[in-house]
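Minutes, structural biology subgroup

Action item carried over from last meeting: produce the structure token record for Thioredoxin domain-containing protein (Bracon brevicornis). EB confirmed the sequence was re-checked against the source entry. Recorded below for completeness.
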Amino acid sequence: LIQGVNLGKINCGRHQQLCSSRNINRYPMWGVLKPGGAFELSHGKDTINELAKFAENAIRAENVWALPASRILEILERRDPEPWFLDFYAPWCPPCMQFLPEVRKASLEFEKSAIKFGTIDCTVHSAICRQYNIRSYPTAMLINGTTTMQFNLQKTTDNVVEFINEAISPTVFKLNSRNFHETLGKKDKKTLWVVDYFAPWCGPCQQLAPEWTALAKALRFLDNVKIASVDCEADAE
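Output recorded by EB:
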């Protein structure tokens, strides 16, 4: 059904360490080893059509990696200098299975050198997910150096792309307890600041977020107008 794909099988009874390194925790499981070294597992139905569809989409999304424990910790402990978009999921979670294809499609919009995409199965890496307070699925975030940005928008391809672009080249100023008074307290009298005070768990706030970014982009040519936001959960004080 798919041209140019080699098929193989692994006996996990004989090669336990290899299967463990690939997050194999049930049998049978189907995975795709992609050009460049990335690897992904199928969590859909074990039918030929479902597997062919998964393989085709996974191969196209070369920059989506099913991460092993060592790599997850390297990223979360800030020992990896590259930016990562991480998706924490559980295979039994329907919204997670709906979001995974959106992540794959979003990955196609970026060069590998700009950002990488990692998926983390919390049924396999339960200790890590508990350690980092992953309490609901799917949970997604962008980690860039010492900065962590939670993805709280609706789980669509367009929102993921918009979120990453905004994180890499922000049009909305992110105000917090460290820069709020320095920025607004010493602002030019001719400069107008429009500030969105939001909470990540707030549904209307999530709906406003893409509109707020669109507003910032529309007004970015006006030097005397600045669009900003404050995360009132992170900076409650």
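Discussion: The chain has a mean pLDDT of 85.
Next step: EB to file the record with the rest of the batch.
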